[in-house]
Amino acid sequence: xxxxxxxxxxxxxxxxxxxxxxxxxxxxxxxxxxxxxxxxxxxxxxxxxxxxxxxxxxxxxxxxxxxxxxxxxxxxxxxxxxxxxxxxxxxxxx
Length: 94
What we know:
By secondary structure, the protein is of the alpha+beta class. Helices cover 35% and strands 22% of the residues. The chain has a single domain, classed as Glutaredoxin, CATH 3.40.30.10. β3 and β4 form a beta hairpin. The longest helix is centred in the middle third of the chain and has 17 residues. The two termini are 29 Å apart. It comes from Streptomyces aquilus.
């Protein structure tokens, strides 16, 4: 066999196919800062993003309360506390 079929090679998703999730809580200045970065990068790349509030979701609170804000890319933890614009952009485009 001359190599794997292209169907079985994992291609990176196009930025428009990605999902960024910002997990935050009310009254959190780091969360506000993180949201500005997420809005900017996702807006530039056409990436869908959402936010979830740990004060209304006990499972998220239990998992992330010490790390807020947390950014997930496609459901996997990307970063917490401070969001680096360039690093998030790379994660969404590479």
